[in-house]
Design brief:
Layout lengths: L5 E6 L32 H4 L12 E2 L15 E11 L14 H10 L3 E6 L3 E6 L11 E5 L2 E2 L1 E4 L5 E5 L4 H7 L11 E7 L8 E7 L3 E9 L6 H12 L13 E10 L4 E15 L1 H4 L7 E2 L9 E3 L3 H5 L17 E8 L5 E5 L2 E6 L4 E8 L1 E8 L6 E9 L12
Parallel strand pairs: 1-17, 2-7, 9-15
Antiparallel strand pairs: 3-4, 3-14, 4-5, 5-6, 6-8, 8-9, 10-11, 11-12, 12-13, 13-14, 16-19, 17-20, 18-19, 18-21, 21-22
């Protein structure tokens, strides 16, 4: 019978915690970084101060506990479809030398890059999550409209939607919650010409907020209208900056954006393709769409999810290595990942983002070829990290708590 060894890894960002039962449910814990609904009630007057770019009444700030009537849609509309890739400029490094399978790891990194397909009309946006690189389900959607501050989050089957008040996106993407963080003032500065991207000349702008700095390279797209400002509202929301901050003009879109956090880390957004459209289905931009049920609160709890296949795990190394006589008869083993932090974390093994684990959650990685592995934990926003730790499979000593440092 094949032997299987398990190395138990736990993170604790304060005092160490005892592990929960292996198969017990692990509901998410209250976020220490966000305020529960209806926190945005302190900001509507400030948010509503600016008139709508269309010249009508100012946009209305939405609340997460108030449903919005479904939109009645008409015929197809003109606009643009762009693809958007999110990258970590400081992603964990891939170790060099045998038995690291660098080519296979690079393929896993590419497979798990967070990617979006974004449909933009002059007054509407649909942002669809088109990879497994998120804490959120693949094919979930974020929809926005010019006359409302905030966003709509739809499940992949479009059966339900949540109203996201301004200040919610950081918690949604970083913690799978609809909590609202306080918005802080932001300042915009023009920085001259940027790079030519996808054949478009760009100009540069910088936004400073308490959460960090945003750098935008902005192109002119004829007949886009104010659609680009809806994408910028989403990026500003990651920075806890007010949505009415004027970064773009009419018919403009950022082709590159860098969000640098005041704590640590950064996210880079790159538009990789731009297609002008005359046939975007109006129903795809309805915010909210007809037939979707209004729901509130956090997403259903999940203990964690693998982001690669078992075949990918075995391909991390080219084969087993010698770990001494105690492990000579064991060719593969497993790692049991236990997240004792209070926020979800991605587990990067030898530079590959193989899984994410919820607070108090646990997830087993198996099978892994016998050998040494580097484990590094990161948040989705890359605003918190734990130093890399070298592990062996099977373990060469009794498993220990790898947490409090």
């Amino acid at each position: 019978m094949k032997l299987l060894a398990c190395a138990v890894i736990a993170i604790a960002l304060g005092a160490c915690k005892s592990d929960p039962p292996h198969d017990a449910p692990h509901p998410a814990q209250p976020s220490p970084q966000a305020s529960a609904e209806p926190a945005p009630l302190a900001t509507p007057l400030a948010l509503a101060a600016n008139a709508s770019p269309e010249g009508g009444p100012p946009p209305i700030p939405m609340r997460g506990d108030v449903a919005i009537p479904p939109e009645i849609v008409g015929k197809d509309v003109a606009g643009y479809t762009v693809t958007l890739v999110l990258r970590l400029p400081d992603a964990p490094a891939v170790p060099s030398g045998a038995p690291i399978a660098a080519q296979a790891i690079d393929a896993m990194r590419k497979q798990n890059e967070p990617r979006f397909t974004v449909d933009l009309s002059p007054t509407r946006m649909r942002m669809r999550l088109t990879s497994a690189g998120f804490l959120l389900p693949r094919d979930s959607e974020l929809r926005s409209r010019l006359d409302r501050y905030g966003h709509f989050f739809l499940t992949p089957d479009l059966a339900s939607y949540r109203v996201l008040a301004p200040g919610s996106l950081r918690a949604l993407f970083g913690e799978r919650r609809a909590d609202v963080s306080p918005l802080s003032p932001a300042e915009v500065a023009v920085k001259g010409d940027g790079m030519t991207r996808l054949g478009y000349k760009t100009r540069r702008a910088e936004v400073q907020s308490r959460a960090g700095s945003g750098f935008f390279e902005i192109a002119h797209l004829p007949e886009l209208g104010e659609g680009g400002s809806l994408l910028v509202r989403a990026l500003l929301d990651f920075m806890n900056a007010p949505p009415q901050v004027e970064v773009l003009g009419t018919d403009e879109l950022p082709l590159h954006a860098e969000l640098h956090w005041s704590t640590r880390g950064a996210l880079f957004f790159d538009v990789t393709s731009v297609v002008k459209r005359v046939d975007i289905p109006a129903i795809a931009l309805a915010a909210p769409p007809s037939g979707a049920s209004f729901v509130t609160g956090a997403l259903p709890p999940v203990a964690g999810e693998l982001r690669v296949s078992n075949k990918d795990l075995t391909a991390l190394h080219t084969g087993p290595i010698d770990l001494g006589p105690k492990a000579a008869s064991i060719t593969s083993g497993a790692l049991l990942l236990v997240n004792a932090a209070d926020t979800p974390r991605f587990a990067w093994i030898d530079g590959a983002p193989v899984a994410w684990v919820a607070p108090e959650g646990r997830l087993e990685l198996s099978p892994l070829p016998r050998g040494r592995y580097q484990l590094e934990w990161r948040t989705f926003l890359d605003d918190a990290a734990v130093p890399a730790k070298t592990l062996t499979v099977p373990p060469t000593e009794e498993p220990t708590d790898a947490g409090a440092r």
